[in-house]
Amino acid sequence: MRLLVVEDNVPLADELIQGLQRQGYAVDWLADGRDAAYQGSSEPYDLIVLDLGLPGLPGLEVLAQWRAAGLATPVLILTARGSWAERIEGLKAGADDYLSKPFHPEELQLRIQSLLRRARGLANQPTLEAAGLHLDEGRQCVSRDGQDVQLTAAEFRLLRYFMLHPQQILSKSHLAEHLYNGETERDSNVLEVHVNHLRRKLGRSVIETHRGQGYRFGGVVE
Ligand code: CA
């Protein structure tokens, strides 16, 4: 999943980005509201973390512009501690959730996971499940019939994307756009290697190849 972090406080942004990268998210970072207004609606982000006090353009304005342009991406706003007015304004402007600073990294992590599931219509799942697999996002491993299967970091982020989009045909370029940020090399051969590793670990039928179209993570969705 590819995330945009908009935060002008550099030490906080650094901490956020490092934490999110450890959790297997591809992260882009912007500090200026005007840049965010543009890039947030032109790149295919899966979720945006938005600070409200920003140079260039206030976060509330940025959010209002995105929503006015029809952007449906989940947005989690970061608000000043105790500022109920900010939270209310943020929710009115179309935020999906908020966190007050300072916050615990694990709370952000869990809220992001839950927003991503909700955005995919999986709000009823406390954890990510599809095709008989159960993904533990905290431990970055998958289990089937109670048996843990260990994953590399790259396999985990690919499998998470598949499990959030079960039974959809996903092209290699689409996957690359959502798994890697702008600076990372998007090599479709690397993707193929990871798909094959997942098949070896989870069974060939778990990911079908649709020639010329892409991959489909399948099976019966429970
Ligand atoms: Ca700020």
UniProtKB/TrEMBL annotation:
Which keywords appear in this protein's UniProt record, sorted alphabetically?
A: DNA-binding, Phosphoprotein
Looking at the record, the residues that make up the Response regulatory domain are 2-116
Positions where 4-aspartylphosphate occurs in the chain: 51
Going by the entry's taxonomy, the superkingdom of the source organism is recorded as Bacteria
Check the record and name the CDD domains matching this protein.
Answer: REC_OmpR_EcPhoP-like (cd19934), trans_reg_C (cd00383)
**Signal sequence extent:** none
Q: List, alphabetically, the InterPro entries matched.
A: CheY-like_superfamily (IPR011006), OmpR/PhoB-type_DNA-bd (IPR001867), Sig_transdc_resp-reg_receiver (IPR001789), WalR-like (IPR039420), WH-like_DNA-bd_sf (IPR036388)
What range(s) does the OmpR/PhoB-type domain occupy? 125-219
Q: Where are the transmembrane segments?
A: none
Question: Where in the chain is the DNA-binding region found?
Answer: 125-219
List the PROSITE patterns hit by this protein, alphabetically: OMPR_PHOB (PS51755), RESPONSE_REGULATORY (PS50110)
**PANTHER family linked:** REGULATOR OF RPOS (PTHR48111), RESPONSE REGULATOR PROTEIN CARR (PTHR48111:SF37)
Q: What is this protein called?
A: Response regulator transcription factor
